[in-house]
Amino acid sequence: MTERGTQPAQQRIAGSIATVSLTNVVGGVLLGCVVILLSIRLVIPELSELQRKFVFKILSGCALWLFIGLQWLLAVSRVRGWSYVSKLLFVVHQVVGVGGPVLLYVHVRSWGFGYLNVLSAAFLFNHALGLMQPRTPQRSRQFRSVWLISHIALSVVIVALASYHTWQAFYYE
Questions:
Q1: Where do the structural domains in the chain lie, given as residue ranges?
Q2: What's the pLDDT at 101?
Q3: Residue 166 or residue 43, greater confidence
Q4: Which of 161, 157, 158, 173 is nearest to 57 (CA)?
Q5: Distance of CA 157 to the CA centre of its chain
Q6: Distance CA 134, CA 132 (A)
Q7: Which is nearest to 57 in space by CA: 102, 101, 97, 106?
Q8: Is the pLDDT confidence value at 9 over 70?
Q9: What is the pTM of this model?
Q10: Confidence class for position 91, pLDDT limits 50, 70, 90
């Protein structure tokens, strides 16, 4: 620490690299586990029993919406030009993002059919895309742009499909 109470640049960079590496490893493992569990249709009796209950569906769906909203806070802070908040939210975005596949698995019993299959796949693919974020300056500017546009576009698709799903779920219950 320096006299002003701030960390030197090398320590901040080293700390952020450690956070990134840990979130990538944990996020990748959780993503892989959820994809395998959904693909082999492993049924956990206790979880399956909870998933059949309307109140649990509502609560787990609300948890997913809270997750999605929290993830979108980073984009909002960047658009608003809140650079200090954006830096803080970037770490929150990565750390909280790790839990996305687990939240999805708790909410769903399978990949789903029709648009639900697309929603599940988009959600998990966007998680994988987030894990592939270009973090080094050696990556080309074009790659960074394509990555960011893809990540945000897929996030918009997820919000649209999740909104439709929420409307459908309440309409037919």
A1: 9-172
A2: 96
A3: 166
A4: 173
A5: 13
A6: 6
A7: 106
A8: no
A9: 0.82
A10: confident
Residue type, 22: L
**Contact indicator for 110, 84 with CB cutoff of 8 Å:** no
Question: Could you tell me if residue 41 is left (phi over 0), alpha (psi between -120 and 50 degrees) or otherwise beta?
Answer: left
- Please tell me the predicted confidence (pLDDT) of residue 122: 96
Question: Residue 138 in 3-state DSSP?
Answer: coil
Residues 30, 99 contacting (CB under 8 angstroms): yes
Residue that has been written with the tokens 């609300």 in this structure: 62
Q: Which two tokens stand for residue 19?
A: 């956070």
The model's confidence at residue 154, banded by pLDDT at 50, 70 and 90, is very high
Dihedral angle of Cα 108, 20, 161, 109, to the nearest 10 degrees: -10
Which amino acid is residue 9, in one-letter code? A
Which residue type, as a one-letter code, is found at position 164? Answer: Y
Q: How far apart are CA 34 and CA 155, in angstroms?
A: 19
Query: CB atoms < 10 A from the CB of 44, how many?
Result: 13
* Per-residue model confidence as pLDDT tens digits over 10-36: 444 445 556 568 888 999 999 999 999
Angle, CA of 42, 44 and 48, to the nearest 5°: 110
As a whole number, mean pLDDT of residues 151-158 equals 96
